[in-house]
Amino acid sequence: MEKQKVTSTVAAASGGGMFTIGLVTAWYSSNIGVLLLNKYLLSNYGFRYPIFLTMCHMTACSLLSYVAIAWMKVVPMQTVKSGVQLRNITVLSFVFCGSVVSGNVSLRYLPVSFNQAIGATTPFFTAVFAYAMTVKREAWIVYLTLAPVVMGVIIASGGEPSFHLFGFIMCICATAGRAFKSVLQGILLSSEGEKLNSMNLLLYMAPIAVLLLLPVTLYMERNVIGITLALAREDIRIIWYLLFNSVLAYFVNLTNFLVTKHTSALTLQVLGNAKGAVAVVVSILIFKNPVSVTGMLGYTLTVLGVILYSEAKKRNI
């Protein structure tokens, strides 16, 4: 009897481990997939409409979030309880939109490898915004570990054969925007009555993002729908690319939430660092963009800095 119990416990642990591995694989695949497909559409394919592409992503997130929460009950639905909470969600949506659009614009001009190197500096911007906007201060050793993060990007920038100033600025804006949103979210939705899990937050943010992006798309990317339909008449694959890309954008958020739920935020951070390295290697193999030894050394230094930063924060909690 005791032997059967041990066997069933081992089987359950093995099954749980396989489920977690499957989740991490799905998270990696969707995350790297949407990044590479964005790059292909905006740069290689020639679909130069990053704002419209972002609006497609947000539309898919709106619809699929509702299906996942209201119909499939992936998580319990949380309601918006006040006008103040709705205003705070709208502010977060605005920052979120700016970050995603900037990231997509940067992919028109920068290779994915360099884009990921800059994106790895998110902890630096998070620490800066947290220091400026809250009374929370980290230990000096935590701030010291941010030095290699910044130095790595400076070295990578100097050694990047495909460096483009505007693309670099847009990528910095996207990275800073992600960090600003995370800090702002902690401030605006900090009370127990206003906290939302990431899936419910996306449910409310995505439709607001669509409403914010629609007039901007119509003004800055005029006749984009007509152009897209004209492209579809020549090559129907563009419709399938956009649909698949938009669904992947939602699955990035879903798998991110599920991996965090079934592991921990710290594990997610470690996996995220590894994901960046995997994305760099895969993008170089697919797009064959030139990479210098200096650039790779800079990126390695940045990732090392992020790992040290994570370790320092863990030890000083």
Automatic annotation (TrEMBL):
The chain positions of domain Sugar phosphate transporter read 23-310
A cellular-component GO term for this protein: membrane
Please give the start and end residues of each transmembrane region.
7-29, 49-69, 89-107, 113-133, 140-157, 163-180, 201-218, 238-259, 266-287, 293-310
The GO terms describing molecular function are: antiporter activity
Q: Give the GO biological process terms.
A: transmembrane transport
Q: Which Pfam families does UniProt cross-reference here?
A: TPT
Membrane topology type, per the record?
Multi-pass membrane protein
Q: Where in the cell is it found?
A: Membrane
Entries under InterPro entries matching the protein: EmrE-like, Sugar_P_trans_dom, TPT_transporter
- Keywords annotated in UniProt: Membrane, Transmembrane, Transmembrane helix
- Cite the PANTHER family for this sequence: SOLUTE CARRIER FAMILY 35
Name of the molecule in the record: Solute carrier family 35 member E4
| Organism (species) | Zostera marina (Eelgrass)
